[in-house]
Amino acid sequence: MRQIQISSMKQFMNHLLVADTFEPFLLEEAVIGTACTFHIDGHVNPEFFGSDEEPEAEASYAFRPWGKVKGLCFDLIKGRRTPLFFRFVLHLMPEKAAALLEKESCDVPTDEVKALVLNIRYDGTKATLTTGTALQTFHLSKMPDAIWDKALCQYLDGKGIAWQDPD
Q1: Which residues are CB-contacts of 113 (< 8 A; sequence separation ≥ 6)?
Q2: Element (H, E) at 37
Q3: For residues 26, 98, 49 and 21, what is the CA-based torsion angle, rounded to 10 degrees?
Q4: Could you give the dihedral angle defined by the CA atoms of residues 53, 90, 94 and 67, in that order, rounded to the nearest 10 degrees?
Q5: Cβ atoms within 10 Å, residue 158
Q6: Whole-angstrom Cα distance, residue 96 to residue 101?
Q7: Burial of 54 (0-12, 13-18, 19+ CB in 10 A)
Q8: What does the pLDDT profile of the chain (167 residues) look like in tens digits?
């Protein structure tokens, strides 16, 4: 688990809500505090798609792709006033997580890694990103955590997102 602080909120918000930077993620949960608090549960409701129609490709995921809900989040956040707070819980898409762990020769089998998680929290003044790894069963190895921590920092650097370690 690693915690990093975003250095430029305006730049980060553009990457989060407008650009395709976070498209490789699924949304587990969003909580946005403005004039009232909005809760979005990212779990897919398969019954919505119906059995008589071909389900969308993303219906195979447990959570909605970030790209399908970021517009809604953007609409809730935009305006003259800054939100009081927000929290997003994102998961790296399973196939991307498995590819990353395999590429880095992780000592934990990829089918035992439930999710590589990214928590994004804004408290009214600053945004903090925290990584996490959810495992199917207990493992002593911290290798998945280390791989995910390093990969996220490299990803942010590659996208030009300014960050720093918290004070």
Answers
A1: 97, 98, 101, 106, 133, 134, 135, 136, 144
A2: strand 37-41
A3: 30
A4: 40
A5: 9
A6: 9
A7: exposed
A8: 899 999 999 999 999 999 999 999 999 999 999 999 999 999 988 777 666 655 565 557 899 999 999 999 999 999 889 999 999 999 999 999 999 999 999 999 999 999 999 999 999 999 999 999 999 988 889 999 999 999 999 999 999 999 998 86
Read off the tokens for 57.
């490709």
* Both tokens assigned to 18: 């407008």
Tokens of 100: 């990353």
**Is the full-model pTM beyond 0.90?**
yes
